[in-house]
Amino acid sequence: MRTLEARGNRPAVVADEAAAVVRQGGVLIFPTDTVYGIGCDPMRPDAVERIYALKNRPRGKPLSLHFASTAELLEYAPGSALVAAAARAFLPGPLTVIVARPNFVGANVTAGLPSLGLRVPDHALCRAILERTGPLAATSANVSGLPAFTGEGSSAGLPPADLWIDDGPTPLGAESTIIDITGAMPRLVREGAISVTMLEQVLGPIEPLDSQPASGDRAGRP
């Protein structure tokens, strides 16, 4: 795996090199505001397949899409007042919203599930990369079963992607909060950097995680 040190390089140079890897069908490890992600062009089934293989990721666990802007994310969930409210309040930021998968997004990205996670990281370099690549199909950059990588400590658990953009420790060092907005009431999938209390102040009541049956889908969301 080739490593590119982001610190000491101009962001535009780093983002251009990352985008070149993605355009060639490669797999990229990149920094976000929460943890490092591993991503690829969602329109390249071969690259999506490589993410699963490199991570040893269970086939039933979906990837999500990362976007450079909130406006771009909202194009994937038109007409949803809940998604729009969540986006206005928390994005860019450490929140992943699960919506109905648009028909133009391949089922291979979502492990065949009818829903899709959407995210806009609050990280300048990450968003510069995404501006050049377009949306990336991504998940956390760690071999399945190992802790998510935050840039602290050993990088030995990183899967061998084509390029690792090393930008040091991530700002938050914790995974994003995930909410499912495919139903009438938002459902908590994972509580992370944004608390349920903060979400309920904007979105109203949220079905808590401990009231839901165990689900490999929910547990496996990136």
Overview of the structural elements:
The longest helix is centred in the first third of the chain and has 13 residues, at 11-23. Mean pLDDT is 93; it is low at 213-222. This protein has a single domain, classed as DHBP synthase. By secondary structure, it is of the alpha/beta class. It has seven helices and ten strands. The protein has helices at 11-23, 45-55, 70-74, 81-90, 124-133, 196-203, 216-220; strands at residues 2-5, 28-30, 37-40, 64-66, 95-100, 115-119, 136-140, 163-166, 177-180, 187-190. Strands 1-8-2-3-7-4-6-5-9-10 form a ten-stranded mixed sheet, sandwiched between helices. α1 (11-23) crosses α5.
Helix coverage percent:
25-40%
Shape: globular
What distance separates the N and C termini?
22 Å
Count the E strands: 10
For the record, what is the CATH homologous superfamily label? DHBP synthase
Strand content: 15-25%
Would you list the SSEs in sequence order as H and E? EHEEHEHHEEHEEEEHH
The spatial strand order of the largest sheet comes to 1-8-2-3-7-4-6-5-9-10
What is the residue-mean pLDDT, rounded to a whole number?
Answer: 93
The tally of helices reads 7
Structural class: alpha/beta
CATH class: Alpha Beta
